[in-house]
Recover the amino acids of this structure.
């Protein structure tokens, strides 16, 4: 027997998962410290830790295979999207059409403003269209996570969740359309420009509908045991996410629509623990760390001005649109301002859409893709803080609580 | 500060105040939407009044002065509809019931108005625990001495009103075993209970003067009595009722009180006695705890019977007065409740079926909003 048969070899060669585990511990501690000393949302700490330890920062965490991360991000985002969908009451749009009007105005104004800005900067119009669709999105992940953490409730909170869900749908659908246009430009036939969005919408709707029916069936039998049911739900979300990807549908759209449909069909509401229990919550933390790891601020070197202009224009447009119709939709000036600001965050959905575009069009990846990534990184950090401040400003968080 | 002179009012006129719960449509917990609701409601013409209350998750609706059941129900329906429509526009559900079954008092926010801020400062957490929802019924009186007479005579029947309106079995997520747990919150206030046994307004004014002299109270509003005179309106105000689950029940209870007041003023020519109060807290506790099944001890004969039986007997005695007042339909509703049970019974049945207080709350809101 030799030393080496039972003692480890020096230097140690641990599995990359060790660094992942360590980063989870560090990220959660940093998040707690932020809450305690700076009254900031925890997710800023999660993303920040990812950025600091990852390739964009100290480069302590070795590059993990993209596919592994992608699965974590997809699952966590699926959980958050389903959670968002099941908290949004679509019937409200019928009772208060002004909210639908606000959402449509805000989304289309953002698209137009971003497109005009990019054209003015001389960006080719097809790339400008893609960027403009992605910038419609308000991060559902940050919205749900920050609202949950702040225990916010009220008009601004409800509207933020509803409008984030709608923006997510607009962004995914129109992004598909824009990408199809890009293909058209690259010399594909007309049929290949029209079919993709059609397949995306009908396929996602069908899968979401099946999810809804299964949900009801299972809930009927085991719904009373909240914990058991959340395990099953968790599995169903994972299944639907992977199924959607396999069928080349959008997991984002499928899970969001599944949430919306189950909420719409159910006569009774159902409350679940946040992120459907601690397994979901761990995935959510990992997702925000992964977002930090993927953060790429390379676009700032080449186009700092454009990045800042994009963020500014998006913020102002969304804010003004909400302010314009706020009075009619039944909220005051203060609440409308808060809502306008709270729509600012960009995160996973925008990131995934950008990565998808990058994978299809390498030219985009090295150009506008970088600019867009920088915008997302900035709004990923500023977003949770803005949402938290806005909800406090609107008086929708508990008074005497960190 | 001296007491406001007793304003004349038309005898046996009635007015109803209902404190309502505002709920979020996702979890059916209380939501601090009173300012949004009031801003929305102000845009539409409606009878009566809609006002803020102590915490931002409650609002109050007040009827104008009414005389009979049909008009009272009509006005309450109009108020309910304007409030419900505002709720639907803002994704806020509205419901009756004396307590919210699972709200946490520390999460309530005090409505920003000088009086509420003062009370919050004075009573501390009691003010937030006061997130409870009651029905107040005003009955018009010809004069101040008549008001005191009616107040002390009606005190005997307080258990009737509690048992009929009781709709607060659940508090902080648990079944308390009480039919009206709401009143337990009221009893923790230092100036709750009953008015002193004074039958002449001049004596009452003297008592009030002495109390303000001690600095304990500033106005009649500081007394949280079960029944108290309201000199500005020329009424007495019965304050023991939980907000019932529907406005129809609220109107029926108001008319039951009205018919009983007529019976006391016109037919029952006996004077109240201080000894009537010997059984007062016992009877009241029985009503809070057991509702219609509670024991009622007659203060004069010391007979024991269930509150349900005592109400049934009363319905027989006041039928003629109710007919005179045009509220026979209201008495029918009361009689139905003796069989079908009160709000607390309905809520416990709903919970036994749904196993989830959030679902119970949703059903409660659907019932109140009439959707």
């Amino acid at each position: 027997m030799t030393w080496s048969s039972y003692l480890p070899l020096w230097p140690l060669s641990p599995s990359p998962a060790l660094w992942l585990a360590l980063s989870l511990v560090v990220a959660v501690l940093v998040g707690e410290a932020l809450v305690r000393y700076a009254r900031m949302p925890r997710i800023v700490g999660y993303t920040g830790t990812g950025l600091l330890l990852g390739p964009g920062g100290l480069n302590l965490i070795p590059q993990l295979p993209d596919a592994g991360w992608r699965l974590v991000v997809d699952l966590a985002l699926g959980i958050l999207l389903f959670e968002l969908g099941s908290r949004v009451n679509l019937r409200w749009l019928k009772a208060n059409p002004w909210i639908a009007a606000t959402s449509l105005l805000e989304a289309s104004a953002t698209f137009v403003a971003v497109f005009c800005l990019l054209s003015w900067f001389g960006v080719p119009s097809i790339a400008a269209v893609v960027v403009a669709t992605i910038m419609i999105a308000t991060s559902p992940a940050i919205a749900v996570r920050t609202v949950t953490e702040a225990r916010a409730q009220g008009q601004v909170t409800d509207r933020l969740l509803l409008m984030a869900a709608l923006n997510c749908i607009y962004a995914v659908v129109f992004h598909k359309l824009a990408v199809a246009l890009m293909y058209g430009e690259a010399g594909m036939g007309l049929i290949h420009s029209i079919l993709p969005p059609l397949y995306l919408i009908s396929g996602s709707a069908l899968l979401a509908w099946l999810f809804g029916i299964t949900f009801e069936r299972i809930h009927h039998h085991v719904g009373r045991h909240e914990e058991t049911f959340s395990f099953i739900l968790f599995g169903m979300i994972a299944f639907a996410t992977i199924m959607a990807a396999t069928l080349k549908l959008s997991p984002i759209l499928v899970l969001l629509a599944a949430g919306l449909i189950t909420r719409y069909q159910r006569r009774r509401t159902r409350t679940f623990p946040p992120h459907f229990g601690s397994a979901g919550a761990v995935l959510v933390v990992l997702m925000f760390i992964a977002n930090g790891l993927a953060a790429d601020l390379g676009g700032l070197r080449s186009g700092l001005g454009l990045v800042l202009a994009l963020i500014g224009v998006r913020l102002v447009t969304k804010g003004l649109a909400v302010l314009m119709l706020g009075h009619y939709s039944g909220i005051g000036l203060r609440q409308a301002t808060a809502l306008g600001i709270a729509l600012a965050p960009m995160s996973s959905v925008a990131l995934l859409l950008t990565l998808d575009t990058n994978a299809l069009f390498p030219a985009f990846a090295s150009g506008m893709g970088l600019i867009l990534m920088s915008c997302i990184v900035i709004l990923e950090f500023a977003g949770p803080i803005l949402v938290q401040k806005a909800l406090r400003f609107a008086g929708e968080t508990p008074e005497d609580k960190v | 500060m001296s007491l406001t002179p007793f304003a004349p009012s038309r005898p046996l006129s009635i007015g109803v105040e209902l404190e309502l719960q505002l709920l979020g449509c996702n979890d059916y917990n209380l939501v601090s939407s009173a300012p949004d609701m009031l801003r929305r409601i102000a845009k539409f013409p409606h009878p009566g009044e809609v006002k803020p209350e102590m915490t931002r998750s409650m609002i109050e609706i007040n009827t104008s002065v009414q005389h009979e059941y049909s008009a009272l129900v009509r006005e309450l329906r109009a108020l309910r509809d304007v409030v419900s429509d505002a709720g639907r526009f803002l994704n806020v559900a509205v419901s009756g019931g004396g307590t919210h079954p699972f709200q946490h008092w520390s999460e309530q926010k005090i409505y920003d108005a000088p009086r509420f801020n003062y009370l919050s400062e004075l009573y501390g957490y009691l003010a937030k625990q006061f997130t409870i929802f009651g029905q107040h019924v005003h009955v018009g009186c010809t004069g101040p001495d008549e008001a005191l007479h009616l107040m002390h005579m009606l005190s005997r029947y307080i258990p009737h009103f509690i048992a009929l309106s009781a709709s607060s079995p659940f508090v902080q997520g648990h079944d308390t075993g009480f039919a009206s747990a709401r009143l337990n919150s009221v009893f923790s206030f230092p100036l709750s209970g009953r008015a002193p046994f004074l039958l002449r307004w001049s004596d009452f004014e003297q008592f009030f003067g002495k109390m303000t002299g001690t600095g304990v109270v500033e106005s009649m509003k500081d007394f949280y009595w079960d029944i108290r005179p309201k000199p500005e309106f020329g009424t007495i105000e019965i304050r023991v009722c939980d907000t019932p689950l529907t406005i129809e029940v609220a109107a029926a209870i108001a008319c039951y009180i009205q018919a009983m007041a007529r019976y006391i003023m016109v037919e029952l020519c006996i004077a109240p006695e201080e000894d009537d109060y010997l059984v007062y807290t016992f009877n009241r506790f029985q009503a809070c705890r057991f509702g219609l099944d509670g024991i009622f001890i007659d203060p004069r004969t010391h007979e024991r019977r269930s509150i349900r039986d005592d109400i049934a007997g009363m319905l027989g005695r006041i039928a003629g007065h109710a007919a005179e007042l045009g509220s026979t339909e209201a008495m029918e509703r009361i009689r139905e409740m003796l069989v079908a049970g009160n709000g607390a019974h309905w809520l416990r049945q709903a919970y036994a079926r749904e196993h989830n207080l959030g679902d119970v709350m949703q059903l409660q809101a659907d019932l109140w909003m009439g959707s």
